[in-house]
Amino acid sequence: MTMDTAERAGALETRGIEPVPAAERGGHPMQLFWVWFAANISILGLPLGATLVAVQHLAFWQAVLVAIIGAAGSFAIVGVVSIAGRRGGAPGLTLSRAVFGVRGNFGPTLVSLVSRLGWETVNTTTAAFAFLSLCAILFGTDAGAKASPVLTIVGVALFVLLTVTVSGLGHAVLVAVQRWSTWIFGALNVVVGVSLVTRIHWDKVFAASPAPVGAMIAGIGTIAAGTGIGWANASADMSRYQSPAVRAGSLIASAAAGAGIPLVLLISLGSLISADDPSLASAGDPVAAIRELLPSWMAVPYLIAAFGGLLLSNHLSVYSAGLTTLTLGIRIKRVYAVVVDIVVTFLGSLYFMLVADGFYGPFIAFISLLAVPITAWVGVFLVDMIKRRTYDPAALMDLRHTSGYWYRAGCEPRALVAWAVAIVAGYLFTTAGTGKDVWFSGPFAQTWLGTNGVGWVVTFVVGAGLYAALGGARGTR
């Protein structure tokens, strides 16, 4: 039975993290194109673009170039990692057991789960801001979160309910919803984007002086960390249903183009807006900040587009988080794992909206911190993938000492050492946060590598290089 037949037979996915049999894998790259496209048409691309101008001081043309390299380039890496999903038919962090050992994989899996929960909290918080603004327009309520705590809770709960409805049902429903919703919310984003562009003071945009090359490099790091790097360890979660006959190049292209097209447009638009009005990059409520730039008649479609785009991103993130939770060894059904993750996201969103003083300072710090361990995992995983062509389905699911991926006490020392050393090396050059919202600054953060935001590149080189030097990539095991 092919995947398409399975999708028509029933909506609810009952499979957990166990590898999908080859006979049930009939997916094709265009499905992934729509999945990645939908997951990246959210409003979060606008403030990312704004930071390129307001923080890195790039000219508009530089910001566009940075968006292309950072977003499309980092999602090409996502596409490369998704090749493992096609080979093994299992989620990314489940396949990672073959690299780190069934016990040693706990660390990378926990980091991945924290990353997914963090992005879900960002999505939910931003969507709730959109909901409050929409209610203020339609019903005259107060748009402030702390001034309307009950309405804030309702907005968060509504977004969470809509998310779990799709993510809980599973892969087949997720693919269908992502594809068709893309047209609806994508069209709304185009209309809003055109309206924003018509209000730009182009003399300010073209008067900006170009920034040094180092600032562009730092911008590429910021965009890569905020886009593709955060999705890299989740890419195989979707590609596990791809047909074994699908070419690797098609998987890479589907991710790079699917995510790159909307991200480049949104990031470029955000940088264009910020070149005209730098306040967007420091806005506590970016939804309201952009709303102020639009004519009143555009407010409702804009807010609907913002809410819907974030929802599409959250569908994929929550689905992946459920699989990652199961990979930790928690013995519950996938749909219940989704519910557990959603509860954490719900509480985190309420904290940022009702308790915390800011939102986007922590957001930039968050993506900077997690980009390092995730990139370290990517480096080790990709080196292993170069030689490994198959994964043992039974060994992936066997957590006992009888597992083919038990190695030494359940751990693969070379992989774990390379991963840990790469994390330390990356943090030495990393600054987490911007301006006054700096959470962490490594001892070499003020060197050329650190100030240009390429600590994550150091992480990748060290992780991949050390793992290869230790002889970790020895082929199929």
Automatic annotation (TrEMBL):
Among the Pfam families in the record, one is Transp_cyt_pur
- What keywords does the record list, in alphabetical order? Membrane, Transmembrane, Transmembrane helix, Transport
Which Gene3D superfamilies does the entry link to?
Hydantoin permease
> Topology relative to the membrane, per the entry?
Multi-pass membrane protein
Where in the cell is the protein located?
Membrane
**Tree of life domain:** Bacteria
Which coarse location class describes where this protein primarily resides?
A: membrane
What residue intervals traverse the membrane? Answer: 33-54, 60-84, 122-141, 153-176, 183-202, 214-236, 248-273, 293-314, 335-354, 360-383, 415-433, 453-473
Known InterPro entries for this protein? Pur-cyt_permease, Pur-cyt_permease_Fcy2/21/22
Q: Which PANTHER family match?
A: PURINE-CYTOSINE PERMEASE FCY2-RELATED (PTHR31806:SF1)
Similarity comment: family membership: Belongs to the purine-cytosine permease (2.A.39) family.
Q: What is this protein called?
A: Purine-cytosine permease family protein
